[in-house]
Specification:
It is built from 13 helices and 13 strands. It is α/β, with parallel strands linked by helices. GO terms for molecular function: pyridoxal phosphate binding; transaminase activity.
Length: about 400
């Protein structure tokens, strides 16, 4: 008999689509995959060499549950220099990917029945993580005219006596929207006045096309004291398979996270941690170059999408996604449960392009495409989308 925790957990739409794409490709079917948020770049050379060096130097033994001392110091320096936040060494914990860092944080903070505010649209795993750990996701409807960013007023109206945490993704997956400093200050003030923690998922922080990115914890000492900052190397350094993420937070929470991690996994792979150390210290030029290429791809993609009169989209300021409004086509698709799922299913079957239905992010009138794939595939995928829409 399986745990009742799984009764209300929905499988990941993105992993399900990725699996379907792999099956079709194994059958020899040529598929354009614009569904998975994985950089098409390889891990920078110096990061790989640091990992290889660690293997040859036999750095393969158990280490600290909070992560390698050298890597945590590199993260500490990065957060101070790039984000303007001074963290103590023991306020940083390295985990097996940012997803793991989020899970550790939720285990450390949530009691059964605690509410976690999640603005819509949201990354697919947030709500399921909260549910598996006994929390209650509270979804907040946001406004398209504000690029689906939660406002202080919307947040305030969603808080109850059971609210423990606000989960905020900045830059956003799936919209690519970025919060301004003033917007974040207003949100922080609401949280401070209502004793609500903030889980700030900043995994796309480096993939930012605006002049300034603001980390929530940098706003004030008070903001830092209620914030758990989540980041990692998967997106910024194309290190998805290495599984290295980290959290930075007040000492008491960090100690709890480290204790939890020590019992569950001991610590992340030492070899992966040394590669991450190499990425942080030796690969900044490569990471900046990736962002420049993403920006060029974004500009081309939105130029092509702008020519399709039947749709509209959120103009992304960061990350590598475009969230597309397909609501005007609703009467042209026969569907039973989910409009966006049926739209994406037909698009895959008829035009051999994989994208993600908006229902995965909590809004059924949208689809999400990525532009972290080869630009020729992105262009062809958008051209096929235009044909598909015209032929509906």
């Amino acid at each position: 008999m399986l745990s009742k925790k799984l009764d209300h957990v929905t499988p990941s739409y993105t992993i399900e689509i990725s699996t379907k794409v792999s099956e079709l490709k194994s059958q020899g079917i040529d598929i354009i995959n614009l569904s998975i948020g994985e950089p098409d770049f390889f891990t920078p050379e110096q990061a790989k060499l640091k990992g290889i060096e660690a293997i040859h130097q036999n750095k393969t033994k158990y280490d600290s549950s909070a992560g390698l001392k050298e890597l945590r110091k590199a993260i500490q320096y990065k957060l101070k220099e790039e984000n303007g936040v001074n963290y103590e060494f023991d306020e940083i914990v390295v985990s097996s990917g940012a997803k793991h860092s989020i899970t550790n944080t939720l285990i450390a903070l949530l009691n059964p029945g605690d509410e976690v505010i999640i603005p819509k649209p949201f990354w697919v795993s947030y709500s399921e993580m909260v549910k598996m750990l006994g929390g209650v996701p509270i979804f907040v409807e946001t406004n398209k005219n504000n690029n689906f960013k939660i406002t202080a007023e919307e947040l305030k109206n969603s808080i109850s006596e059971k609210t423990k945490l606000l989960l905020i993704n900045n830059p956003s997956n799936p919209t690519g929207a970025i919060y301004t400093e003033n917007e974040l200050r207003s949100i922080v003030n609401v949280c401070l006045n209502n004793n609500v923690y903030i889980l700030a998922d900043e995994i796309y922080e480096k993939i930012c096309y605006t002049n300034k990115f603001t980390s929530i914890a940098s706003l004030s000492e008070e903001a830092k004291n209620i914030t758990v900052t989540i980041n990692g190397l998967s997106k910024s350094a194309a290190m998805t398979g290495w599984r290295i993420g980290y959290s930075a937070c007040p000492k008491k929470i960090a100690k709890a996270i480290s204790t939890i991690q020590g019992h569950l996994v001991s610590h992340p792979s030492t070899i992966s941690q040394w590669a991450a150390y190499g990425a942080l210290n030796l690969c900044s030029d490569e990471m900046r170059n990736m962002v420049n290429i993403y920006k060029a791809r974004r500009d081309k993609a939105i130029s092509l999408l702008s020519k399709i009169s039947e749709i509209s989209f959120i103009n992304p300021q960061g990350a590598f996604y475009i969230f597309i409004d397909i609501s005007s086509l609703k009467d042209k698709i026969n569907y039973k449960e989910s409009y966006s799922v049926e739209f994406c299913k037909r698009f895959l079957e008829e035009y051999k392009v994989a994208i993600v239905p908006g229902i995965a992010f909590g809004i059924d009138d949208y689809i999400r495409i990525v532009y972290c794939a080869d630009m020729k595939e992105v262009e062809e995928g958008i051209k096929r989308l235009e044909k598909f829409i015209k032929n509906l």
